[in-house]
């Protein structure tokens, strides 16, 4: 028995086992490099061809569209604005793991591994074809190119994956690693090139050439008393590059304003369409409107105020002739996103618009260029359709917007909210005369009063900045004689209808969070 054990672990067997493990490791590395090369080729070709989206992002969009609503809400709550980068990185990681597995499989069964490679590419093409803007033939051609590149790299690397033996056969490890590294690097460069060629740079130049017309009904001048300019306080108008962005698009849709048009259709007497130039030629209004995401937690930053410019929805609907029973307006995006809200809101709220401008410039790409919907008083998930393609009038129960089947309420009025910006949660401030400051919003109703409570003391009325419009948030502040120690600060607002912000804490789902914003501050003795 001892002789048999010794024989089973002989130096020759140990050498073969080590070579087998080394070959398996090289097979896995070959698979990862092949996937990187394939993805780079696909991204570069998609950028060159034009009407084909990134297959990686297409898969990501398919994941977003198919996951249960509770999981999507949990991801937003946990990751916030990092949810999209995390999803893309996760897809790339899964691709790398699949590549490693296929590389190991291909060492013995190359044809089945190559077939699996093609099946994965086919899944990516199928996901891309879910986008109505994707041309079928170029998408298939791009997917096929990715398969050819990936399989060719995999085949070449596997031929190099046999470790060099004592008699000099096989490939030197350094040469194998160099080839695999080069294939991976070229894949990364190809992917980066594809992103640059995807039209974003050209679109940025087209946007920069746009000149917004002077509005027929401009917003009034901003009095100095409307912006308190307290250090740490959110500005009255959030700069475009700092304005929150929440949407379902993994990559900003590339929409050429020269070929873009928007339809007004559905339950209307006179359907029509508008080009971008025609939209710019219509009479415009300006309005200061605070937008809020339904996923904004109490005290969160998924809310912002801007001066918007565009064409009133009311005028477009009057031109179309809304039919009796058309109780819902559905906004449709070029990427398939939909959001619906009551038609009466579009008719009654004069500042509801098809917006083309934001804070004095054409809409940024990330915020809906060339046109989007802005509807005061409603959370974005039911109203703020970006990259607008169509306005469709329907009955209330005939169509559900994107988020409704995913567990969100069909109606989404913005709740009265206030937030403490100064002091920041968990910060340490010096004792003595200081200030507590923040913002409060209740679009369409306005803010009449903000109150602040320190620890268990009485509610104190804060000073309000001058109002601009009922749709616009108001800054507020309260002088504070800060004493050393730990303090809990709370705030609540009263809107223009006399309704006081509730202290009942509710989650963001299904129709927005509620409760008083509370921060803890540490005051040090000076």
TrEMBL record:
Organism: Kineococcus xinjiangensis
Protein's UniProt keywords contain Membrane: yes
Annotated keywords: Membrane, Transmembrane, Transmembrane helix
Protein name: DMSO/TMAO reductase YedYZ molybdopterin-dependent catalytic subunit
Matching InterPro entries: Ig_E-set, OxRdtase_Mopterin-bd_dom, OxRdtase_Mopterin-bd_sf
Superkingdom, taxonomy of origin: Bacteria
Keyword Transmembrane helix (UniProt): yes
Residue ranges, compositional bias (Basic and acidic residues): 494-506
GO MF annotations, alphabetized: heme binding; molybdopterin cofactor binding; sulfite oxidase activity
Pfam family, one: Oxidored_molyb
